[in-house]
Amino acid sequence: MRYSIQKMSQISGVSGRTLRYYDQIGLLKPKEITDSGYRQYSEVEVDKLQQILLYKKMGLKLQAIKLILDNPNYNILEALEEQKKHLLLEKDRLEEVIKTVDKTLVSMKGSYEMTNEEKFKGLKEERIRINEEKYGEEIRQKYGEEVVAASVKKQLNLTEADFEDMQATEKLLLHKLTEYLVVDEIANPLAQEIFNLHKKWLQFSWANYQADAHKGVAMMYISDERFTAYYDEKSGVGSAEALNKIIQYYA
What Pfam family does this protein match (any one) (predicted)? Predict the structure, then answer.
């Protein structure tokens, strides 16, 4: 069966203009173009568009979606399983956020007093949400859905003391990085201390520590300008590069 661009737009809710753009960038090519210049889509393209829309709902950018779908080892069943895991995780997270908001509303109306544990839980969920929006796409591409799910679970199980320790560890790490920029000597106790602090900080959210994964995270600090800007702003220009070198050396 063939679908015109108008029919494709009707059944998917995607505008004809967007479908033409997907064609231009090679994300979704029509099955054929008629002699009159009209795009014609088959069931294969319908299924592919469904995948594109699912990945978009997960927050992936078009370029990342194209890389996934163009992978010769791409398996739609495996992809759907991964998407389901992500959506279930997001569903659980949203349900917890809604519960926290409901309790906050009741508390503000004076008929219920939130415990510190409940307030703290909301803070953890907000931190996870921000990290997901900023870095979720890259982390999933690099490490997979199961690793992300395990990390979120560990973060949600942090006690208030753990959370405060994690923040204190990062604060000390950033301070030591500033000091290191003056020394700039890899075989130095200060560099070893910075590595240990960063490893400790990661282990607050990592289910299992792996040296290779640690090195991979460090590489993201210099390959992703958002990470570079974060460390350079907090500890001084060159901090992200210095931190990467330290981790590559000691991990």
Answer: MerR_1
**What percent of the chain lies above the pLDDT cut of 90?**
39
Compute the distance between CA of residue 195 and CA of residue 215 in angstroms, rounded to an integer: 11
Q: Using CA atoms of 128, 129, 131, 133 in order, give the dihedral in degrees to the nearest 10.
A: 160
Q: Kindly state whether residues 165 and 152 are assigned to the same domain.
A: no
Could you tell me where the DSSP H helices lie in 58-188?
62-70, 76-108, 116-143, 145-156, 160-183
How confident is the model over 31-65, as pLDDT tens digits?
999 999 999 999 999 989 998 998 887 777 788 88
Distance CA(115)–CA(94), nearest Å, equals 20
Task: Report pLDDT for 119.
Answer: 59
pLDDT of residue 68: 85
79 and 122 in contact (C-beta within 8 Å)? no
Give all strands of the β-sheet with 32-33 in edge-to-edge order. Answer: 3-4, 39-41, 32-33
pTM of this prediction?
0.52
Residue 107 in this model has a pLDDT that exceeds 70:
no
Domain annotation covers residue 75 = no
Print the domain residue range for 7: 3-70
Secondary element (H or E) of residue 190: helix 189-203
What is the DSSP secondary-structure string of 206-225? -SS--HHHHHHHHHHHHHSH
